[in-house]
Amino acid sequence: MKKRILLILLFVISIISNAQETLTLEDCYALATKNYPLAKQKELLQQKSNYEIDAITKGKLPKIDLNAQATYQSDVIGFPSKMPGVTPINKDQYRATLDINQLLYNGGMIEANSELKQAQTKTQQQQIEVSLYQLKTRIHQYYFSILLLQEKSELLKSKKELLQSKVQEVKSGVKYGAILPASELILEAELLKIKQQLTEIDFEKIKMTQNLSDLTFTKIDTQTTLLAPNSNLENNRNNRPEIVFYNLQKQQLEFSKKTLATSVLPKINAFAQAGYGNPGLNMLDNSFQPFYIAGLKANWTILDWGKNKTDLKTLDIAKEIIETEKEIFELNNKMQLREIESEIGKIKQLLELDNNIIDVREKIVTSANAQMKNGVITTSEYLTEFSNLYEAKNSLKTHEVQLAAAKSSYEITNGK
Predict the structure, then answer these.
(1) What SS3 state is found at 61?
(2) Does 57 fall in a domain?
(3) Which of 174, 203, 208, 414 is the most exposed place for a label (fewest CB within 10 A)?
(4) Number of structural domains found in the chain
(5) DSSP 3-state of 72
(6) What are the tens digits of pLDDT across the range 7-17?
(7) Which are the contacts of 315, defined by CB distance < 8 A and separation ≥ 6?
(8) In this structure, is residue 55 part of a structural domain?
(9) Would residue 10 count as lying in a domain?
(10) Count of CB atoms within 10 A of residue 308's CB?
(11) How are beta strands 92-105 and 267-278 bridged, if at all?
């Protein structure tokens, strides 16, 4: 039973380990969007907006105030002669009131302010989306740098294995006098050079992986294999978050105009006051009395000297400025896409030539190998052709990664 449990645990660990051995570009994007500190601000902005809108809508509820005062006056209303039943007013007076004000109509200003606050929040959240999207470019750079190092490392290891097998052949040739003894040393020196190159790649990969880990807030092991993305360039629709941001800014200005329009409409409130004081409403009754007042109050600014119209014109100009910024962004974005398309076309042609060069180089190496065995050429001459072949293969791998990077860059620039 214990053995079965142990085998199951080992199987699960193996699955988890294998799941962590590969990483895609989309995984990195998703991790950065989820874990980057700036992403948390979106939820915080929404919470802040909810509280602010709740505070705005509370303007529809009645406002209740409790007031109390005690005063002493240097003088009071007096009468030239005493009147029957009328006592002089005291100089010390007391009053406590409960005041209630209820908004009845304000032209929809509360609703307009709530809508404006929602629009402001959406704009701020989209600004965060723009900032997060810019992270993609940095992640893209590190990801493909690591991917290129990864391909170069595999190619060097393959070259190393072939050279090691060639060393055994040369040793045999040296033993039987067919090949000069120095030939073995030449190959050994080349193997040391490859080891040096692999060391440089390992340290560079560690640095790039750490940077990628920092941006995604995830521990990425240097042994993790990065997968080349399969990009789709058929979608020509621009989905950049900046476009949405500009549109939301213009929408916010429209809500601001709506708020300004409601600010000049009349406002009507109902009010009531209940109190107890000395004197009450009857100033001639010099005693503590209860009292109340109820009524309606209207307020309408009929002349603001054109301030509202000026504010509306200011908002219209601001909207035009945003539209020009959007046009400039779309123009630059279009130029970037055209440049990337040209780069993709160039790399595709280079890849075709790479394959042709490799075919020719492989034939040359095969011929050089036979000549070296027969003593026609030296090991150094063979090694030169052998290195030329791997330089061609390295060029092929580099262009393959560059093509994948260019396609991915096109997607980022186009807003995918």
Answers:
(1) coil
(2) yes
(3) 203
(4) 1
(5) strand
(6) 444 444 444 44
(7) 253, 256, 257, 260
(8) yes
(9) no
(10) 14
(11) antiparallel
Length of the chain, in residues: 416
Residues 6 or more apart in contact with residue 404 via CB below 8 angstroms: 144, 147, 228, 229, 231
Residues 6+ apart with CB under 8 A from 341: 410
Q: Under a CB-based contact definition with an 8 Å cutoff, are residues 154 and 390 in contact?
A: no
Q: Token pair for residue 330?
A: 């779309």
DSSP string, 20-74: TSEE-HHHHHHHHHHHSGGGHHHHHHHHHHHHHHHHHHGGGSPEEEEEEEEEE-S
Instruction: Show the domain range for 238.
Output: 25-71+90-414
Task: Note the helical H segments in 176-218.
Answer: 182-216
What is the dihedral angle through the alpha carbons of 208, 209, 213, 216, rounded to the nearest 10 degrees? 70
The shares of helix, strand and coil residues in the chain, as percent rounded to the nearest 5, are 70, 10, 20
CATH number at residue 308: 1.20.1600.10
SS3 188: helix
Model confidence, pTM: 0.80
Tokens 């100009």 correspond to 317
- Torsions phi, psi of 38, nearest 5? -65, -30
Residue type at 399 in one-letter notation: H
Tens-place pLDDT, residues 240-295: 999 999 999 999 999 999 999 898 889 999 999 999 998 888 877 788 899 999 99
Q: How far apart are the first and last CA of the chain?
A: 52
Q: Kindly state the tokens that stand for 20.
A: 């962590």
Q: Strand, coil or helix: what is 222?
A: coil
User: Distance of CA 263 to CAs 101, 267, 297, 309, Å?
Assistant: 19, 9, 17, 12
